[in-house]
Design a protein that fits this description.
Structural class: mainly alpha
Order of helices and strands: HHHHHHHHHHHHHHHHHHHHH
Number of strands: 0
Helix content: over 70%
Radius of gyration: 27 Å
């Protein structure tokens, strides 16, 4: 009972810290991953704070699948496919380059390391963290193409990094070096098998979802899906990461047809909260790992380790910067000359930003902690504590150093906000409204004079919305009737809300009735707020 009580207390404290750090991040305008890692680090220095060790099994099995699924769900398949060459050169090429370079330089930098331990260390720090980089990129308004590439890279490179770690660990534990053919076959099965399992799970869920229209059931099913895809792929020794990504990309396109409007609103709210809590949890826990890591390196010189950590962090950052320039040129040549995508050569400043967004996160620390403590002969896994310390140092340094400097760097390079207004969205809205108006006019004619006033009023409403959508090259006109319509409608909704609350306070309606009315008013107000912004 005491253990359960301690666990409950720690869990509640973690949730409290997540909420507080999230609030602080919003107030100071800093991406929350940075604030939570720093906050967790500072908390670990407070006397009496319990030592909360990060269990790698919990990260890989409990936390990682829903985070990957949420990231895949918000990724555009069209943009992912369009940028596939650039993404693959980072997710596969850069991971391989990172592992190879660190395997070569680690013996020269760190005492007691051979190239096999360097291989393991490189595989651990190769994957980048999706949330840290893209949350900053979106906040400062990076061009959408850069954000798409960063998101696509971080969705896939977890799988390639974990594969490299699997091969590197086998070289040390089993004292054997796998052949190139073995590595290729393993990579092929992890990739093909993982994608196949993910698509199969997605197809089954698609069939099931079309038979259901109940928000609680569908929300529960959506939380179950990433775990089902991950565990099914791991059971057949394929990539659970790629299975979750493939399943998410498949279902996000299908969801437009099998989710009702009410379910879509509710499920999006649930996943936003779940995504925030899980991300906050892992970033705070990363910061809280200091006591565990400090205890593991007691037999080493701290000053020497800090110097090694600084050199290693700079090496990891430099490796990415060295890779991105030739890979960007190669990607441009393939996309422009082979795929005929009409791409222009990427500007050097954009390439540098992609190189600077190499922040590491929870996958790296979980991979380091997952290293076996002992070899089959009973001896300790060589340099395990040093590998964990170096990994923690790279995560902390890249999140804080690169995360804090990225916004001013983007502004200095004049990349912030260069994406401009969403012409694609404006054009889509125009086409949608014109189609609705045309449908109403045809229906009015077919009704042969019935309900003419209703049709005319509704068509006028759509025409006002259409008039509010202005082409980018038009001069800004005076406020339209639609603007006044939005303003008056919001005022009327506020009166409705206050009146409904007054009826509840007077005991004339129940809280349940008020909640139903509030839901309708909230949806209407959200729509009007969005139109006003447009």
């Amino acid at each position: 009972m005491n253990v359960i009580g301690t666990f409950q207390s720690i869990f509640l404290l973690l949730l409290l810290f997540i909420a507080l750090f999230g609030f602080l991040a919003r107030r100071i305008g800093t991406p929350y991953p940075i604030v939570m890692v720093v906050g967790g680090f500072l908390l670990s220095l407070v006397p009496g704070i319990p030592n909360v060790a990060l269990n790698p099994d919990i990260v890989f099995v409990v936390v990682l699948p829903p985070l990957l699924y949420a990231a895949a769900w918000t990724t555009s398949w069209r943009d992912f496919r369009y940028n596939l060459v650039s993404i693959f050169l980072l997710a596969f090429g850069l991971v391989g380059f990172t592992v190879a370079v660190i395997a070569l330089v680690a013996p020269a930098i760190f005492g007691g390391f051979d190239w096999r331990l360097g291989f393991v260390l490189g595989a651990i720090v190769a994957p980048t963290d999706a949330i840290a980089a893209t949350s900053i990129a979106r906040r400062v308004g990076l061009p959408r193409r850069i954000v798409d590439i960063l998101e696509g890279e971080s969705l896939i490179n977890d799988a390639t990094g974990l594969l490299a770690l699997q091969l590197g660990t086998a070289m040390i534990v089993e004292s054997r070096i796998p052949t190139a053919l073995t590595g290729f076959v393993t990579l092929a099965w992890l990739t093909v098998g993982g994608v196949a399992v993910g698509l199969l799970v997605g197809w089954v869920v698609d069939r099931i979802e079309r038979q259901i229209n109940d928000a609680p059931i569908e929300i529960t099913l959506s939380i179950l899906v990433p775990y089902a895809a991950y565990l099914a792929a791991e059971r057949v020794h394929a990539s659970g990461v790629l299975a979750v990504v493939a399943c998410g990309l498949f279902l996000t396109r299908r969801s437009a047809r099998f989710f009702s409007a009410a379910v879509r609103i509710q499920i999006w709210s649930v996943w936003q909260s779940l995504n925030f809590v899980l991300n906050g949890l892992v970033f705070v826990l990363i910061g809280l790992q200091l006591p565990t890591i400090r205890a593991s390196i007691r037999g080493h010189s701290l000053s020497a380790l800090l110097m090694d950590a600084a050199i290693f962090t700079l090496t990891v950052i430099a490796i990415r910067l060295v890779w991105v320039y030739p890979s960007a040129t190669l990607a441009w040549m393939v996309r422009a000359r082979v795929l005929h995508q009409g791409e222009t050569r990427p500007p050097l400043r954009s390439v540098f930003v992609i190189g600077w967004t190499g922040m590491r996160g929870v996958v790296s620390i979980a991979a380091a902690l997952a290293l076996p403590a002992a070899l089959p002969d009973g001896s300790a896994f060589p340099q395990r504590s040093v590998i964990i310390f170096l990994t923690f140092s790279v995560i902390f340094a890249t999140l804080v150093l690169q995360g804090v400097t990225l916004p001013p760097l983007i502004r200095a390079l004049r990349l912030a906000g260069t994406a401009g207004p969403s012409c694609e969205e404006t054009e889509a809205r125009r086409i949608i409204l014109e189609a609705a108006i045309e449908h109403l006019r045809i229906a009015m004619t077919a009704d042969a004079g019935k309900s003419q006033e209703v049709y005319i009023d509704l068509i006028r409403h759509y025409e006002q919305r259409l008039a509010a959508i202005r082409p980018a090259d038009d001069a800004q006109p005076e406020p339209t009737e639609h603007d006044r319509y939005v303003e008056l409608s919001l005022e009327a909704l506020r009166v409705e809300r206050e009146t409904a609350i007054g009826l509840r306070d007077d005991g004339r309606i129940s809280d349940e009735v008020l909640r139903h009315i509030e839901t309708e008013l909230d949806l209407a107000e959200t729509r009007l707020d969005r139109r006003g912004d447009d």
